[in-house]
Amino acid sequence: MVGVLLLIIGLALVVGGAELFFDGLLASAGRWSLSPFVLTVVVSGFELENLAAGIAANLKGLGNAAAGTFLGGTTFLALGVAGLSAAVAPIRAALPASVLLWSASAPLPLLALGSDGDLSRLDGLILLLWAVVAIGGIAYAGRSLPGSEVAETSRHPLLRMLGGLAVLTGGGVALGDGLQRVVAQFGVSQSLLGNTAIAAAVEVEEVGRVAVPSRHGRGDVALGNVFGTIAHFAAFNAGLIALVRPIQLDSVSRHLHLPVAAASVLVLAGLTRRHRGLSRLDGAVLLALYGGYIAAAISLS
Question: What is the structure's pLDDT at 216?
Fold first, then answer.
């Protein structure tokens, strides 16, 4: 029970700390009046709670659980978050084809580098360099989308950022300890835990970040959050986590979680291009695919 308690506390702290951090960060970024789409792709996509969870797990020797934060996290965003958000409210957004091409290509280097089951520090460095290219490419390709001034809404943004980082640090330690205890005591597969439970629990607030702007007529911001976060996960987070400590992917991660993460983004980009956004039917399709993925992950664990 100690491991489960630490897991719950750690998840709560990393999510709460990330929210505090981004409140200050977004207020600071608003001083430069960046467009909503570009700001969302570059800043909101930088999910510190996911990164903290992955690093903490990897430092505890749970490499496949760590890999789950960016592999399962990518799949959860592309199928679960986008699907549920579209089911709640259709997402209307005529994104440029170049935005979708950059987004669909974001996980491909990770797929290539991880296919041999080894994410080395060199692979991590390559992915970090690719993150700059991919995230920059998505943001630049969407620079012409409708803009509006982003106003500063929070006081003392620097203090809020530092406070959020402190909470994140404590949450990462608790989460790492909890993961280690749960895996050791309950025999839960690292890859199953990381790619499903942890990935979904850490990123569940993304549904609100996508559904709310969509219901206010800003489908570009909603999908910018999804595609921007995916690029961060599949390139920046994966690269930094591997750079901290190399990861040896198990068979399930290589043959299921890795290819599904890449394929799910292609499916999402294709549906978005075809329907100029996502309808409720598209949302149902994405959720059905995610359900099939979860079933496969459980059966293979």
Answer: 73
Q: Which domain holds residue 269?
A: 2-300
Q: For residue range 250-284, what is the model confidence (pLDDT) as tens digits? A: 999 999 999 999 999 999 999 999 989 999 999 99
Residue ranges of the chain whose pLDDT lies below 50: 148-151
Contacts of 257 (CB under 8 A, 6+ apart): 67, 68, 71, 72, 75, 191, 195, 297
Distances (CA, A) of 32 to 136, 156, 161: 17, 16, 17
> In total, how many domains does the chain have?
1
Q: How far apart are CA 65 and CA 179, in angstroms?
A: 8
Contact 114, 249 (CB under 8 A): yes
The full DSSP string for 83-138 is: HHHHHHS-EE----HHHHHHHHHTTHHHHHHHTTSEE-HHHHHHHHHHHHHHHHHH
CA distance 20 to 29: 15
Region class of 156: left (phi > 0), else alpha (psi between -120 and 50), else beta: left
Q: Specify the pTM.
A: 0.80
pLDDT score for 296:
93
Question: What CATH number has the domain bearing residue 26?
Answer: 1.20.1420.30
